[in-house]
Amino acid sequence: MLIKRKFVKLLMPSPIKTRHAEYSMVYSADDDFSTSSDRLIEIAIESAKIAHKTSLAYVLERTKTEKYIEIWPGEHYKFLAGIVQYLKPKLIIEIGTGKGLSSLTMKKYLSANASIVTFDIFPWKKYPGGCFLKEEDFADGRLIQYTDDLSTKEGFQKHAKLLKEADFIFVDAAKDGIQEQRLIDNFKTIQFSNSPIFLFDDIRLWNMLKIWREISMPKLDITSFGHWSGTGLVEWKNH
């Protein structure tokens, strides 16, 4: 994969010098597998309004160095804060704990009776490169981490009863062109109690283009209100 990326960069050098660049492609919309919905458009607009007035000083103070979290639009953290405040989900599922920045952001704006369950293959204390979460973040039971891979049949079935109760699911996984598709396929096997909203990160990265394009449920690319590498909303419909 690394060799392939280097070859592509040599073949198609970036016309712009920037801190970080990724390869993508643009596609026509009229022949997409799905279109948006009134619900998604309303969620995007109202969440963006809230995000515009939301401060993440609390998270920035925790990290000290990760100043990019306050950049908006361009990063997705403020939009996450906005959508949590607008949707008021009782159960958030996060796939990809990482450094814990998204968990911290969403927990800050959770309703009193709501919770976040975050999944990663690494325990937060052993995340490569370090994690910003602390024991105190888990003390009230509103943030829980499981170290199971939901892209496997075994990992998914283990938590299927919990997952079906989700109101909002944030997918920030491997972006390898494989894991996200397996996650989508697994979620199609359960009947949700509600009609959850999914938020996919990095939908404009090369490995995510086909996956995002082939989602047949109502979806909306909200990259201009989210992450520069792509942010997409999906209104999940039980099959």
Give an account of the 3D structure:
The protein is α/β, with parallel strands linked by helices and 239 residues long. It has one domain (34-235): Rossmann fold (3-Layer(aba) Sandwich). The protein contains nine helices and seven strands; from the N terminus they run ααααβαββααβαβαββ. A seven-stranded mixed sheet has the order 3-2-1-4-5-7-6, covered by helices on one side. β4 (168-171), α8 (179-187) and β5 (197-201) form a beta-alpha-beta unit. The mean pLDDT is 93.
Which key terms come to mind for this protein?
globular, 7-stranded mixed beta sheet, 13% strand, alpha/beta, Rossmann fold
Strand order of the largest sheet: 3-2-1-4-5-7-6
Number of domains: 1
Count of alpha and pi helical runs: 9
Beta-strand residue percentage:
5-15%
Q: What is the number of beta strands?
A: 7
- CATH superfamily descriptor: Vaccinia Virus protein VP39
The CATH topology turns out to be: Rossmann fold
Instruction: Please provide the ordered H/E string of secondary-structure elements.
Output: HHHHEHEEHHEHEHEE
Sequence stretches where pLDDT stays below 50 over 5 or more residues = none
* Helical amount: 25-40%
How much is the average pLDDT? Answer: 93
- Could you give the distance between the termini? 35 Å
Radius of gyration: 18 Å
Main beta-sheet strand count, sense and barrel state: 7 strands, mixed
| Structural classification | alpha/beta
Q: Judging by the overall fold, what is the CATH architecture?
A: 3-Layer(aba) Sandwich
CATH top level is Alpha Beta
So what's the overall shape? Answer: globular
